[in-house]
Amino acid sequence: MHATNIPYQDQGIELEGFVAIPSEEKRPVVILCHAWNGRDAFICEKAKAIAEWGYVGFALDMYGILGKSKEENAALKKPFMENRQRLLNRVIQGFEIVCNLPYVDSKRVAILGFGFGGVCALDLARSGADLQGAISVYGHFDPPPHSCMQAIKAKILILHGYNDPVSPQSELRGFELEMNKAKVDWQAHIYGDAMHAFATPGANDPASGILYHPTVASRAWTATHNFLDEIFSGK
Question: How many domains does the chain have?
Fold first, then answer.
């Protein structure tokens, strides 16, 4: 496996993606979208784990910097949540960068996001992008403006904690209705006793509904692997 950084730009903002490549042969690619603190070591390690499964793992960069506190993370996330077209444009930039890499099979692309990254993954799917799959892990579900939405081509996988107060069950119910109305191939795995950020080691703020749960993290990662194997095999 080979891993390297890939610099690129969007609207004059310097960004840096991280790619993990299993071989120089064309392979399916999984685009990974980071949580609210930026393109950190966690998401890069996930890209490497994806490469160990035989797929290219590409961690895109939404901010160009890393947040250093809850307040800074919230400030970095806020303008994208307030302007979903801006969010979509930034994700599309990463999508286009990775699809043009010589070792990527641009006909077999999936996107995976954690927290804030879940919004990024679902918004790219909602844009009608040519994706085989989109995965949200404890992400948000509220839809973007209709101007950002086209017919969804991707299969959708939701991995969510039942006790997540950041993205509550009521928000998920609305998403399920949206997917059913659009006749999307979707599934949701709801993990009992799991809060927000259940897959993030070190997450430990149960008063805010944020807590790492290693057992649930392992189950969700297995579900991710199975889903990717399914969509990339053409089943």
Answer: 1
Give me the mean pLDDT over the 126-149 stretch: 96
Angle at 123 between CA 117 and CA 39, to 5 degrees: 25
Give the sheet arrangement for strand 2-10, strand by strand.
2-10, 13-21, 56-59, 27-33, 104-114, 133-137, 155-161, 186-191
d(CA 74, CA 31): 23
Dump pLDDT digits (tens) for 203-225: 999 999 999 999 999 999 999 99
Amino acid 33 reads C
Q: How far apart are the C-alpha atoms of 164 and 162, rounded to whole Å?
A: 6
pLDDT band of residue 153 (cuts 50, 70, 90) is very high
CATH of the domain at 21: 3.40.50.1820
**81 pLDDT above the threshold of 70:** yes
Given a cut of 80, whether residue 235 has pLDDT beyond it is no
Q: How many CA atoms lie within 13 A of 38 on its CB side?
A: 15
Predicted structure pTM score: 0.97
Other CB atoms within a 10 A radius of the CB of residue 165 amount to: 12
The two tokens of residue 180 are: 């059913």
Nearest-CA neighbor of 157 among 181, 174, 130, 175?
Answer: 175
Query: Which structural domain, as residue segments, surrounds residue 37?
Result: 2-232
Q: Which of 188, 163, 161 is nearest to 174 (CA)?
A: 188
Rounded to whole angstroms, how far apart are CA atoms 52 and 50? 5
